[in-house]
Design a protein that fits this description.
The complex is a heterotrimer of chains A (about 280), B (about 400) and C (about 325).
Chain A (H helix, E strand, L loop, with lengths): L13 H32 L20 H41 L5 H12 L4 H14 L5 H26 L4 H7 L4 H12 L1 H17 L2 H5 L9 H9 L9 H29 L4
Chain B lengths: L7 H7 L2 H10 L7 E10 L4 E11 L4 E5 L6 H9 L6 E6 L2 E2 L10 E4 L11 H12 L4 H15 L14 H13 L5 E5 L7 H18 L3 E5 L2 H7 L2 E6 L2 E6 L1 H6 L4 H6 L6 E10 L2 E5 L4 E3 L2 H7 L6 E6 L4 E4 L7 E10 L3 E8 L2 E8 L9 E6 L5 E3 L8
Parallel strand pairs in B: 3-8, 3-9, 6-7, 7-8
Antiparallel strand pairs in B: 1-2, 1-4, 4-5, 9-10, 11-12, 11-14, 12-13, 14-20, 15-19, 16-17, 16-19, 17-18
Helix pairs in contact in B: 1-8, 4-6, 5-6
Chain C lengths: L1 H9 L2 H15 L1 H28 L2 E2 L7 E2 L3 H8 L1 H13 L1 H19 L4 H13 L2 H11 L6 H8 L13 H29 L3 H9 L4 H30 L2 H6 L11 H11 L3 H34 L1
Antiparallel strand pairs in C: 1-2
Helix pairs in contact in C: 6-10, 6-12, 7-10, 10-12, 12-15, 14-15
The chains are: A mainly alpha (about 280), B alpha+beta (about 400), C mainly alpha (about 325).
The complex binds adenosine-5'-triphosphate and magnesium ion.
The site of magnesium ion has 4 residues of chain B, from helix 3.
Chain lengths: ~280, ~400, ~325
């Protein structure tokens, strides 16, 4: 990546040196602020409970895996629930939004503009408002406390945003492609499947990742739409341990191991999807 | 536009005359291969009329060029033929079958897009094969053989395993043509296929396309906004403006005998001189008068103008039919030389006379660079006369 | 076909109108089929619940119980209730987090553009905070900032920066500062993602021509970079403005809305009514207030932004 604003070596000026220096200072600071908390947590997760109230240090004296094994054992079922919920959310959201975004990007039809604005407005909608009626409706339709209930509920978060990103992606593809396919023997549908879908794969990966992230990370719905008796995902469990104020002494080491366990899957997925994300977020 | 002169267009075409005439003779009213009847297409609930009342007959083996300024409805017409657009009214008949309501894939027409529209994720081979894979059950070897034949014809056989991105614009254009050719369609539809190419490559591709069309002997509809391209390529030229067909004819007919002011103005480079004149009667002789000159008309023209003494008409005359001389001869008028523009073997001379701009074409070097004034003589028998609203008088 | 046309013209106005509506539908059938799922979800999951929620505000509506019609009682009692105003004020303060996020994201995006190495690693680290669940980062900060045992205050007192630890949980302003900080820390990477993507899309030639015409860094920023990022900033800020105001998990973890109602931003208040007390009608009434506030924010923001950028270009 070129800097865009510095000329060749011949013209280094005081101003340039100063900007360069400040750039490094700012970046170093931001990296530290983002990284150090995680380093501390990693350290704490290996600290035995009894060694906890000494001086904080980044390298624990007698590291132990106890927090990790316990944390993992406690969370196992919930992690499975989270995975099912997040994956299902991603799959359903793609099934809904890929065709919609495609039509909004590349088809002409009556009412297109209004439809698209309705979706953009929906993106600006404060979702928490929907929690109350959704809780109530889910309760009366049997979706409350079920995994499909979560899948559907998360589409509220995902659909508008996904359409917005994907539409942009489809729009950027060269024009006339699907018509060329149609002239050479495809139907509208097979042109879409054979030509457009493969080309839009990066955008689809990005949206799939974001949908998965929503399903995995969300607290609001996962807490409000489940109770202890249903399929509880991992996030509300973590909340129960700290925010619920259960009165017991908090075993911070285990708690921190749990945060890392819950945080790991989206981070790993991010590493796979990151190249696509940047593209997906380029606002025109 | 390349440095070629405008009259290469009709003359290069005249070598093909025998072929064309044979085809014309053999084609009866109902045997024509592709027929466009009364097509009308509007957009945005009828507020944009893209084309209207379009009738075109395209005979077996005929090369038809649709030409007109940007936005005149060429692409729309072509898309209607291909089935990518559903016309509001009218019929499309291919080989005697009404295909107006057929899907694009069922029409057996090949379309070459202005934007080339190769599939970026497929190799050149897969791109060319695409139509065969979709539409036919040919065995793989047969498909490959056809693809290789076509690639060889087009000179892209060394690039079959590359992706389109790794090809130059001209090569991509050929692949796009190849994708059409391999289908052996009933007709080819090409939408400004060479607009992305540089002048030399364009000339070269024109020749190739024309050759290929001759060999395949299939009807071809070729869209362009470049009148010169139209003249060089077409057996038949369809001039469109503002959604309507203005004239259909051979390049010679269009060039020599435009049916209205628009066609006269649009075809030919430099553009013809279109001069506002008043019809005056001078001792029983009819003359056309203008601020700069006064000319007497031919008998044929006089017959039409007889009733119109005092009216304003538009006199159109091609730059070739203005003769420039040093000394004033009889019937000539003087004009100032503004610019001399070399066109190769000829020069375009831009003149002004009493506020009128005129242009003339002369043999190379006839008018010296430093000449200020010339005497202009007009071949009035080669001139056209139009009503002020653009319809042809004579 | 030709006969059909003449038939159609013989039909009455209304019939042919119906026919043309049907024709447009026929022609675009595939498109409508494609957007159908989206529209169905939009209606089923957004508009119906939203309207049902508005209707619920007119009831005393216990969760899972049977509702009683009380008219505008919910609104009246909310407006008379002192803590509601505390919560309202907290919401306004809390919305400052969006400004902080924009600031950090902008600085970070511009800085990353300036360097040529490690960009992948650095953006990766930035994005870490955004990819893991907010509840996880909230937990982490709850630990780091715990007054008695968290490393932040332990280290500060140890190094002598503070004479004694701060029990921020009992102080309204300090609590507010903590939740604003943590929210900013968690969500600025989202804005960073949008802003740096749009920075990446600026044509290098624009910078080069700005240089050729003698623009300095600041002028280049004002005349090339900022105008180009305008829509990205607009989108990022609008989205975050709303999403920040609807996040509850971290506030609940860190302060649980306290002390008192000092950090009960409207979303948290809604949560407390819905989850803590099961009063769905009141909860949704709070939600409607939040709705109006966010719409107002976004509206004002877009207007001011447009005005400012018009002045900048004038
Ligand atoms: N999808 C559409 N929606 C609305 N108007 C359209 C559409 N397609 C074409 N038009 C309009 O119809 C008219 C004819 O367009 P068309 O594309 O056929 O022109 P063209 O002759 O091919 O021009 P060009 O040489 O620029 O390609 C134009 O005025 C155009 O704006
Ligand atoms: Mg066109």
């Amino acid at each position: 990546m070129s800097t865009g604003s510095s000329l060749g070596l011949g013209d280094v000026e005081i101003g340039d040196v100063w900007t360069r220096f400040m750039t490094y200072v700012v970046l170093t600071f931001l990296v530290m602020v983002n990284l150090v908390p995680f380093l501390f947590i990693i350290s704490v997760s290996f600290t035995p409970p009894e060694a906890f109230f000494g001086d904080p240090s980044l390298v624990p004296a007698n590291p132990t895996l106890e927090a990790w094994t316990k944390g993992f054992a406690d969370l196992r079922d919930n992690l499975v629930n989270s995975a099912i919920i997040a994956t299902g959310t991603a799959v359903i959201s793609m099934a809904i939004t890929i065709p919609g975004a495609y039509a909004f990007a590349r088809k002409r039809f009556y009412g297109k503009k209004v439809g698209f604005y309705a979706i953009i407005v929906a993106m600006m909608f404060p979702y928490i408002l929907l929690v109350i009626p959704v809780m109530d409706i889910w309760n009366s339709t049997g979706l409350y406390n079920t995994i499909p209930g979560m899948w559907i509920a998360y589409q509220i978060f995902v659909t508008p945003f996904a359409i917005w990103i994907l539409r942009d992606f489809f729009q950027k593809l060269p024009q006339d492609l699907e018509e060329a396919a149609q002239v050479y023997g495809c139907t509208q549908f097979s042109a879409f499947v054979r030509v457009i879908l493969p080309l839009a794969a990066p955008g689809i990966v990005a949206v799939g990742f974001l949908a998965f992230l929503t399903g995995w990370n969300d607290f609001l719905f996962s807490n409000l739409l489940t109770t202890g008796v249903g399929p509880v995902p991992a996030v509300p469990v973590l909340y129960g341990t700290i925010g619920g104020g259960s009165g017991e002494r908090v075993y911070w080491g285990k708690l921190m191991a749990e945060t890392l366990i819950i945080g790991a899957p989206p981070t790993v997925l991010y590493l796979f999807a990151r190249n696509y994300l940047e593209n997906a977020f380029a606002v025109k | 536009m390349s440095g070629n002169t405008s009259n290469t267009a009709p003359s290069s075409d005249s070598t093909d005359d025998p072929v064309r005439n044979r085809q014309r003779d053999s084609a009866g009213a109902d045997e024509s291969h592709v027929r466009v009847e009364q097509i009308r297409k509007t957009f945005n609930d009828g507020s944009v009329v893209a084309c209207e009342d379009v009738n075109i007959d395209i005979d077996e083996g005929e090369f038809v060029v649709l030409v007109g300024p940007s936005g005149c409805g060429k692409t729309t017409t072509l898309r209607c033929i291909a089935g990518l657009e559903q016309p509001d009214d009218g019929r499309i008949v291919v080989d005697g079958d009404d295909v107006t309501d057929a899907k694009p894939k069922d029409r057996n027409l090949a379309f070459v897009f202005q934007s080339i529209a190769l599939f970026p994720h497929m190799t050149v081979r897969r791109n060319i094969r695409f139509g065969l894979d979709m539409n036919t059950d040919l065995p793989d070897e047969e498909k490959d053989r056809r693809v290789e034949d076509v690639a060889e014809t087009l000179g892209i056989d060394g690039m079959l395993d590359r992706k389109p991105k790794a090809l130059s614009g001209g090569q991509q254009q050929r692949v796009s043509l190849g994708r059409a050719m391999v289908m052996e369609p009933d007709a080819f539809l090409l939408d400004e296929p060479f607009s992305a190419l540089d002048a030399n490559l364009r000339d070269q591709m024109r020749v190739e396309v024309k050759q290929i069309q001759r060999e395949l002997n299939k009807p071809m509809v070729f869209v362009t906004h470049d009148q010169e391209e139209a003249m060089t390529l077409g057996d038949k030229i369809v001039v469109m403006d503002d959604g309507n067909v203005q004239q259909i004819g051979t390049p010679h007919e269009i060039y020599n005998d435009p049916t209205n002011l628009f066609v006269a103005d649009f075809i030919g480079s430099p553009s013809p001189n279109l001069l506002d004149c008043t019809v005056v009667e001078d001792g029983g002789e009819l003359r056309l008068r203008n601020a700069a000159f006064e000319v007497s008309v031919t008998d044929e023209q006089a017959a039409v103008l007889r009733e119109r003494v005092g009216d304003r008409v538009v006199l159109g005359v091609r730059p070739e039919y203005l003769a420039l001389n040093d000394a004033e001869t009889n019937g000539a008028f003087t004009a100032n030389v503004d610019v001399v523009e070399p066109l190769g073997d000829r020069d375009a001379v831009h003149l002004s006379a009493d506020g009128q701009s005129l242009s003339a074409v002369t043999p190379q070097g006839r008018v010296g660079r430093r000449t200020d004034e010339v005497a202009v003589e007009m071949e009035i028998e080669r001139a056209w006369l139009f009503e002020t609203d653009g319809t042809r008088l004579v | 076909m030709a006969t059909e046309v003449s038939d159609a013209s013989a039909e009455t106005e209304g019939q042919s109108r119906m026919a043309s509506v049907w024709e447009t539908f026929e022609e675009n059938r595939f498109s409508y089929l494609l957007i159908m799922p989206t529209l169905v979800f939009l209606v089923l999951l957004m508009w119906i619940p939203f309207l049902r929620g508005v209707w619920m505000t007119l009831y005393e509506w216990p969760f899972g119980g049977s509702p009683t019609w009380i008219g505008l009682e919910n609104y009246a009692s909310l407006l008379e209730w002192k803590p509601f105003y505390t919560a309202f004020k907290a919401t306004l303060w809390f919305s400052l987090t969006t400004a902080f996020q924009l600031l950090v994201a902008l600085v970070a995006a511009l800085s990353v553009r300036e360097i040529s190495r490690f960009t992948k690693a650095i953006t990766g680290i930035f994005l870490l905070a955004y990819t893991v669940p907010p509840l996880v980062t909230g937990t982490i900060w709850a630990y780091l900032l715990a007054p008695d045992l968290g490393p932040f205050f332990t280290l500060l007192t140890e190094w002598g920066v503070l004479s004694e630890t701060i029990y921020w949980g009992t102080n309204g302003s300090a609590s507010m500062a903590v939740i604003t900080f943590v929210t900013t820390w968690t969500f600025w990477p989202f804005m960073f993602l949008i802003l740096s993507a749009s920075l990446q899309n600026i044509d290098e030639e624009l910078y080069e021509s700005a240089q050729i015409y003698g623009a300095n860094r600041l002028q280049t920023f004002w005349n090339v970079t900022l105008p180009h990022m305008k829509s990205a900033i607009l989108v990022a800020v609008s989205i975050r403005l709303i999403w920040n105001l609807t996040k509850v998990s971290q506030v609940l973890q860190l302060t649980n809305g306290g002390p008192g109602y000092d950090t009960s931003v409207l979303a948290v208040l809604l949560y407390r009514f819905a989850y803590g007390r099961g009063q769905m009608g009141v909860a949704y009434t709070v939600g409607l207030v939040l709705f109006v506030v966010t719409i107002g924010f976004v509206f004002v923001f877009i207007r001011e932004f447009e005005k400012a950028s018009e002045e900048a270009t004038a």
